[in-house]
Design brief:
2 copies of one chain form a homodimer.
Chain A (H helix, E strand, L loop, with lengths): L2 H18 L4 H10 L6 H13 L3 E8 L2 E8 L1 H21 L2
Antiparallel strand pairs in A: 1-2
Helix pairs in contact in A: 1-4, 2-3
Chain A binds a DNA duplex (30 and 30 nucleotides) through helix 1, helix 3 and strand 2.
Chain lengths: ~100, ~100
Amino acid sequence: MIRDFFLGFIKIHILHHAAKEPVYGLWLIEELDNHGYKLSPGTLYPMLHRLEEQHYLESYSETIDSKVRKYYKITPTGTDALSKIKVKMQELVREVLT
Amino acid sequence: MIRDFFLGFIKIHILHHAAKEPVYGLWLIEELDNHGYKLSPGTLYPMLHRLEEQHYLESYSETIDSKVRKYYKITPTGTDALSKIKVKMQELVREVLT
DNA sequence: CAATACGATATCGGTATACAATAATGATAC
DNA sequence: GTATCATTATTGTATACCGATATCGTATTG
């Protein structure tokens, strides 16, 4: 399925957003929806958990409007990975999109 | 592992090359190595088989220098997928690399 | 002719997960 | 007690990846 290709793109989106500012699950679902990626909670949340296990992201909880949100932000490991990914992505784009 | 991200890129590379001209396993291993991706045969060949099962690629065998090679070329399904991937990739790049 | 080297592809066996939809849960406000 | 925002859990399915080894057909070598 073509979805398999996009799942990688989705993770890159997440790392990128989490590098700019702390993000949380539902916000990401909407944001990714704007990019044409439909993610159910059963896909996104476990994905966030894994990214945290792998130390690309770290989380903290905060109560907003008296609801608990779990914010994720990028770690140094994640920043490092992201920059390596960008390099390869640029290479790929240069080769494929010309 | 960061490798997980690259595996998606690798598949895109493969589709792209198979869209330009027929390609075969060992050639791809070298070509990808030039891009900094080390693939063992145990990774690449099953990957090609899956891409064929999923009808992104199709193969035919040819004897070159009295050795049998299995050439893969892209299918209409693969062409379609690739163009969709390119669109999303461009979006991603515009967002992430600026 | 036997042995082996070469270019390629295929397979094996183990490990580790990833993905998805849906339903459940929790806290608070009204 | 019900609606809302948000996360978590459940359950099931399906594979992907990788190193190492095996296989295959032909040509070469001695």
